[in-house]
Write a structure and sequence with these properties.
Blueprint: H1 3-43, H2 52-65, H3 72-90, E1 94-98, H4 104-113, E2 118-122, H5 125-134, E3 139-146, E4 150-151, H6 153-160, E5 165-173, E6 177-180, E7 191-194, H7 196-201, H8 203-209, E8 214-217, H9 221-228, E9 234-238, H10 240-246, E10 249-252, E11 262-269, E12 279-287, H11 293-303, E13 308-314, E14 323-330, H12 336-348, E15 351-359
Parallel strand pairs: 1-2, 1-3, 7-8, 7-9
Antiparallel strand pairs: 3-4, 3-11, 5-11, 6-9, 6-10, 12-14, 12-15, 13-14
Helix pairs in contact: 1-3, 2-3, 11-12
Coiled coil: 1-28
Protein name: Bifunctional chorismate mutase/prephenate dehydratase
GO molecular function, one term: prephenate dehydratase activity
Length: 363
């Protein structure tokens, strides 16, 4: 037996031993999670088991301690799944998302909560909000902005009529593929289905490769994938999850015009989230129509050195005020400088509501 074979056998034995150690440690962690559940329930029968700030702190710690060779994000994803499975032993997290199955929103929900969460598809953004408000689910996941196509106005507008709070965020790299079924005649594709935003994100590629194909907008990319199964001359723009769900084949991959194409999703719930160390706050502000309105709104943030990350304007629903601003900025509402800035804005605004302070997305 060669030295190479001996070394390989030794390495395999070492891997087997490490696997056993990892298995025992994960089981020990799961037992601790069960004990945590018993302690929480003994103190409060309505105890909250999922704590967004705690989850983020654990993942950030893991990423800081990681020495490789796996990169920090990959290590954090592994721990996310361990945490998800352990949390399910305490209380399975029920999450509503903008469906149907196979959408990027479902992918974002699984990325944030892990595969052990119970994810439920909803037909519209309003329904996601309604399920969370009613307490039928613990959290909801809705898209809020895309790096190519901009803000999702429907999500912002729904916040104006809701008491729901933002509890977290997740950013998902969006890769679009051109998909066909086993019956598609690839040289005869004359119709392409997709969500309108996906058409916008792939416009240049489509103009170059399928300039004469009919572009048919549908409610979601998953719906587009489903329609392709029944037609021989059509294709769909969708992601890997939809392709796997409906058994479609890629004929072109990563056709988005911008390689950094990303969508930001919000985690919505009914709870206030304590500080996690690196946080973001979202507010909605109504201002009266008068000279210097925008300056009056933004000046306190500048003076208190608060970094604004997003500013959007939407029409007022009531007609009483002309301007309604959605603002995201770094910092937590409980930080002294943030609290001071918000107090000043409150005095200048017709109305101000904090939608939530929450951890900046880790993954």
């Amino acid at each position: 037996m060669s030295d190479t074979s001996i070394n390989l056998d030794e390495l395999r034995q070492r891997i087997d031993q490490l696997d056993s150690d990892i298995l025992n440690l994960i089981s020990e962690r799961a037992s601790c999670a069960q004990q945590v559940a018993h302690v929480k329930l003994a103190e409060d029968k309505d105890a909250v088991f999922y704590r967004p700030e705690r989850e983020v702190q654990v993942l950030r710690r893991i990423m800081a301690l990681n020495k490789g060779p796996l990169d920090s994000e990959e290590m954090a994803r592994l721990f996310r799944e361990i945490m998800s499975a352990c949390l399910a032993l305490e209380q399975p997290v029920k999450v509503a998302y903008l469906g149907p199955e196979g959408t990027f929103t479902q992918q974002a929900a699984l990325k944030h909560f892990g595969e052990s969460a119970v994810s439920l598809p909803m037909a519209a953004i309003d329904e996601v909000f309604r399920e969370v408000e009613a307490g039928a689910v613990h959290y909801g996941v809705v898209p809020v902005e895309n790096s190519t196509e901009g803000v999702v106005n429907h999500t912002l507008d729904t916040f104006m009529d809701s008491s729901i709070k933002i509890c977290g965020e997740v950013v998902l790299r969006i890769h679009h593929h051109l998909l066909v079924s086993e019956t598609t005649r690839r040289d005869k594709v004359s119709r392409i289905y997709s969500h309108p935003q996906s058409f916008g994100q792939c416009r240049k590629w489509l103009d170059a490769h399928y300039p004469h194909a009919e572009r048919v907008p549908v409610s979601s990319n998953a719906e587009a994938a489903k329609l392709v199964k029944t037609e021989w001359h059509s294709a769909a723009i969708a992601g890997d999850m939809a392709a796997k769900l409906y058994g479609l084949t890629h004929i072109a991959e990563k056709i988005e015009d911008r390689p950094d194409n990303s969508t930001r999703f919000l985690i919505i719930g009914n709870q206030d989230v304590p500080m996690a160390g690196e946080d973001k706050t979202s507010i909605v502000v109504a201002m009266r129509n008068q000279p210097g309105t925008l300056h009056a709104l933004l000046e306190p943030f500048h003076r208190h050195q608060i970094d604004l990350t997003r500013l959007e304007t939407r029409p007022s629903r009531t007609g009483v005020w002309n301007y309604v601003f959605f603002i995201d900025f770094k910092g937590h509402r409980d930080e002294p400088k943030v609290a001071a800035a918000l107090e000043e804005v409150q005095l200048r605004a017709a109305d101000l509501r904090v939608l939530g302070s929450y951890p900046i997305g880790v993954l």
